[in-house]
Amino acid sequence: MTALEPRPAELFVGTPSFGPDTDPQDVIAWALRTHPDVTMPSAFNLNGVVLLDLAVRAGYRGEVVFVDTGYHFPETLATRDRLAARYPELTFVTLNAGASPDDGQTPDTLYAADPDACCAVRKVAPLQRHLRDTNPSALLNARSRDQSSTRAEIPFVEDGGARRKINPLAFWTREMLEAYAAEHDLPVNPLYFDGFLSIGCWPCTRAVRPGEDARAGRWAGKGKTECGLWQGDGQL
Ligand code: SF4
Q1: What gap in Å lies between CA 7 and CA 30, rounded to an integer?
Q2: Is 204 marked active-site?
Q3: Catalytic member of 119, 201, 204, 227
Q4: Is the distance from the beta carbon of residue 227 to the nearest atom of ligand 1 less than 6 Å?
């Protein structure tokens, strides 16, 4: 396995001597030492499932926080349940639990008319509220550089905003993630194997076509690439 393109050493200032070939478990171990209150939001995509397993092996015993937007695929909710059964040492928290498209949180078709507004209400706001209440100093996040061109510069550690973001998988490729998941028999969302390489809400996710980025099926044709958790004014 080889990692993605190396980054200049000066971009890792302020963190240990991490480099593109640093083992994600070393990054997680550093995160646990440096931020004992670190927490992990997850939507249980391939990256998230791999990160979760690596984190448990490194000693993480905190929360795994999932936001129920009301528009998740049943397969995603089932994946969450399989993970919760597999990792009883973790605390799985579902925010906005039981949400549904017709619960009045947003107008029926807001996801089509204004997906930024829909994500802000159904996804970003519940997580922001939870983080305000629990106030962790850092978040473990599963983003990686080869997911999309907009994530091509993600470092292991991001400062700025309310809390530090630590991205142990920043340099792992999709092939490395798939190999890890297969080797450890991880419960990957079955939609992944139907071409849904990145899975969000069903109105805003399609299968990826050959040659497209892993995230090309998210908000396709809507001029939107991120839900707002990791970029923009409302980022975590
Ligand atoms: Fe709404 Fe789509 Fe965002 Fe889900 S991904 S919260 S349905 S706009």
Answers
A1: 20
A2: no
A3: 227
A4: yes
Contact at 8 Å (CB) between 155 and 11? yes
CA distance 226 to 47: 16
Q: For ligand 1, is residue 123 a contact (CB within 6 Å)?
A: yes
Q: How far is the CA of 120 from the centre of ligand 1 (A)?
A: 9
The Cα–Cα gap between 131 and 15 comes to 24
Distance 103 CA to ligand 1 centre (A): 14
CA-nearest of 136, 144, 129 to 48 is 144
The dihedral sign for the CA sequence 215, 221, 227, 232: positive
Facing residues of 218 across strands? 205
CA 33 – CA 176 distance, rounded (Å): 26
Q: Whose CA is nearest to atom 5 of ligand 1?
A: 201
Sign of CA dihedral 35, 36, 37, 43: positive
* Closest residue to atom 6 of ligand 1, CA basis: 119
Q: In what order do the strands lie in the sheet with 63-67?
A: 40-41, 63-67, 91-95
pLDDT in tens, 99-144: 999 999 999 899 999 999 999 999 999 999 999 999 999 999 999 9
* Ligand 1 within 6 A of CB of 67: no
pLDDT, tens digit, for every residue of 197-207?
999 999 999 99
Tell me the whole-structure pTM to 2 decimals. 0.90
* DSSP structural state of residue 139: E
